[in-house]
């Protein structure tokens, strides 16, 4: 029993650092995406034809994209905080463990599938 417990704890710690690495990596990618969009928002040119297609597309989507990326960034910071406080993987609404498969798919998840569904259904759709 004790040995079993020890092995599980070791496994948990391993998961934790792998997870932290994954989140840190995601965080860096997000920051570089945000920088990319901020750069293209700064690119001058108000006349049609001043910008090439990719710049135009970038400017058209930048504001929305940055807002979205900042949300993701906050979710990652929150997940990292939850990892260090030991609350990671526990649903914030019902307190049950969030299924591992869900965390693999969405490492920033703070709710189990059931609770998230309730939240999603109660929120008005943005689009
Ligand atoms: Zn829940």
- Secondary-structure element order, as H and E? HHHH
Strand content: under 5%
Helix content: over 70%
Instruction: Characterize the biggest β-sheet.
Output: none
Number of domains: 2
Low-confidence stretches: none
Number-wise, the strands total: 0
Bound molecules: zinc ion
Q: Can you tell me the overall shape?
A: elongated
Radius of gyration: 20 Å
Q: Treating each run of at least 4 consecutive H or I residues as one helix, how many helices?
A: 4
Overall mean pLDDT:
86
Instruction: Report, as a whole number of angstroms, the end-to-end distance.
Output: 52 Å
Word description of this protein:
Helix 1 runs antiparallel to helix 2 (53-85). It contains four helices and no strands. It has two domains: 2-88; 90-127, no CATH class. 71% of the residues lie in helices and 0% in strands. The relative contact order is 0.10. It is mainly alpha-helical and 127 residues long. Bound molecules: zinc ion. The site of zinc ion (ZN) has 8 residues, from helix 4.
Describe this protein with a few key phrases.
binds zinc ion; 0% strand; mainly alpha; 127 residues; 4 helices
In short:
The protein has four helices and no strands.
Tell me the layout of helices and strands:
Blueprint: H1 2-42, H2 53-85, H3 100-105, H4 113-122
Helix pairs in contact: 1-2
The structure holds zinc ion (ZN).
The site of zinc ion has 8 residues, from helix 4.
């Amino acid at each position: 029993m004790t040995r079993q417990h020890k092995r599980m704890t070791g496994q948990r710690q391993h998961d934790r650092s792998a997870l932290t690495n994954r989140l840190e990596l995601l965080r860096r990618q997000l920051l570089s995406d945000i920088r990319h969009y901020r750069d293209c928002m700064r690119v001058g040119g108000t006349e049609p034809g001043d910008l090439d297609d990719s710049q135009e597309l970038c400017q058209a989507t930048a504001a929305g994209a940055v807002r979205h990326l900042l949300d993701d960034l906050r979710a990652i910071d929150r997940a990292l905080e939850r990892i260090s406080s030991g609350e990671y993987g526990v649903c914030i609404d019902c307190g049950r463990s969030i299924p591992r498969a869900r965390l693999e798919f969405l490492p920033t998840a703070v709710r189990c599938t059931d609770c998230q569904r309730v939240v999603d259904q109660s929120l008005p759709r943005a689009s």
